[in-house]
Amino acid sequence: RIVYVNGKFVPEEEARVSVFDRGFMFADGVYEVSSVLRGKLIENEGHMTRLRRSLSELSMQSPGTDDEIEAIQNRLITLNKLDEGLVYLQVTRGAADRDFIYPGENVKPTLVLFTQAKNVIDNPIAETGITVKTVADIRWARRDIKTVGLLAPCMAKMEAKAAGFSDAWMVEDGYVTEGSSNNAYIVTKEGTIVTRQVGNAILNGITRRAVLALAEKHNYKVEERLFTVEECYDAAEAFVTSATMFVQGVVKIDGAKLGDGKPGKITQQLRELYIEMALAEVS
Ligand code: PLP
After folding, report:
1. Cα 243 to ligand 1 centroid, rounded to whole Å
2. How far apart are CA 223 and CA 194, in angstroms?
3. How many CB atoms lie within 10 A of CB 162?
4. Does ligand 1 have an atom closer than 6 angstroms to the CB of 183?
5. Which of 87, 135, 203 to mutate for ligand 1's pocket (most ligand atoms within 8 Å of CB)?
6. CA 144 to centroid of ligand 1, rounded, Å
7. Which atom of ligand 1 is nearest to the CA of 180?
8. Ligand 1 in reach of 54 Cβ (< 6 A)
9. Under DSSP, is residue 34 helix (H, G, I), strand (E, B) or coil?
10. CA distances in angstroms from 36 to 24, 77, 85, 126, 245, listed in the order given
11. Using an 8 Å Cβ cutoff, are 179 and 169 in contact?
């Protein structure tokens, strides 16, 4: 596999980043994951806009213009002959002597990209759905910034896995924030789609925005508000969204089985609508 590091496209074995890189020492870096269908990026403009925001919230230099970054993403897709999967991109503040104070403008950001093949559309999980365990959200207070500081969600997912679940839904003050690497939704028995409102407590998902717009266009009632774990147990359906999973049904939350144990009808429709929108973008 060819990867990109600071201006060079190189085989992954030859890629090098300094041990003094602040991404390595302080998790002082941000990232984006865009999905790829038919060799083309999906919703990449949204990912670029969010990258700009993450960089700006952390006063981090940009490694290039949107067009320059997109050209690197596309070149990597071509070099690796990627048809379906994802492009990961990470920007760190660069390599400097270890200091809590950010280095000066002379230290240039580190830009790393790689691709990963994955069946995004024909994902077997779409048929079975996933199970989730609720766990305490022990992350920091700026989850709206997409940083590489991901140990807390790793711990959350490990806790879920140890108990036999596929993923974790994180909970703060009795309310669900989001999944370990996705946004979380329930569908009430009345058919209302409920998901937490954006703010500092969750990541403003690019897929979330598109899925909510599709839901409203198809006349579903959408409520962006706090929802409790008890509401989850009582839900008719539940699902998660992310760039690499699109829409995936949740069939069990802790001990509560939802519906007939398969992804629900509204969940399936939203998945189909999102796939349709994504395919339209690449054809
Ligand atoms: N929430 C968290 C914590 C995430 O890590 C992600 C994606 O990685 C998402 C939500 C979904 O965001 P997006 O739809 O932009 O992939």
Report:
1. 7
2. 5
3. 9
4. yes
5. 203
6. 10
7. 3
8. no
9. strand
10. 27, 8, 5, 18, 12
11. yes
What are 259-280's pLDDT values in tens digits? 999 999 999 999 999 999 999 9
Residue 132 Cα distances to 18, 106, 152, 170, 176, angstroms: 38, 45, 16, 10, 12
Q: How big is the chain, counted in residues?
A: 283
Supply 119's token pair: 């069946």
Give residues with Cβ within 8 angstroms of 19, minimum separation 6: none
Q: What average pLDDT is seen over the chain?
A: 98
Is-above-0.95 flag for pTM? yes
Q: Is the CB of 178 under 6 A from ligand 1?
A: yes
**Spatial distance between the Cα atoms of 48 and 45, rounded to a whole number of angstroms:** 5
Q: Is the CB of 91 under 6 A from ligand 1?
A: no
User: Domains in the chain, ordered, with CATH?
Assistant: 2-117 (3.30.470.10), 125-282 (3.20.10.10)
- Tell me the one-letter amino acid at 193: I
